[in-house]
Amino acid sequence: MFDGQVRGFSGGGEGTFNTPPQTFNPPANVLAIPILQYIGETSDQTSVQCFISEFVDNGVKHQGKFMGVAATKCTEIVWSLYCKNCVARSARLILFMG
Predict the structure, then answer these.
(1) Where residue 6 falls among pLDDT bands split at 50, 70, 90?
(2) Exposure check for the chain: N or C terminus, fewer CB within 10 A?
(3) How far apart are the first and last CA of the chain?
């Protein structure tokens, strides 16, 4: 999950995997987007979501399911991958805007 490893539940099950916080020091002007690289379906009820679950911009923490983040003074991002009845792999795309 966001590290080249496949995560999930090949025998059934569901859950969310979170990365440790990715930090930026000094704060960075970024566009961050999670990308689904691979999914191995194991059931007709398969579901996958990759998203940013938390980020800090200009000292303010934002939590939710963000499909991308544009932040001018980003200091932290937590990447997440939800899997139900499958295995999946995701990647981080971070554009530093200068």
Answers:
(1) confident
(2) C
(3) 27
As a whole number of angstroms, the distance between CA 42 and CA 20 comes to 27
**Strand ranges in the chain using DSSP code E only, listed in sequence order:** 7-8, 14-18, 22-41, 47-57, 60-66, 69-84, 86-96
Write the CA distances from 14 to 18, 20, 82, integer angstroms: 13, 20, 7
DSSP annotation of 3 = S
CA 90/CA 86 separation, integer angstroms: 13
pLDDT tens for 38-83 read 999 767 789 999 999 999 999 999 999 999 999 999 999 999 999 9
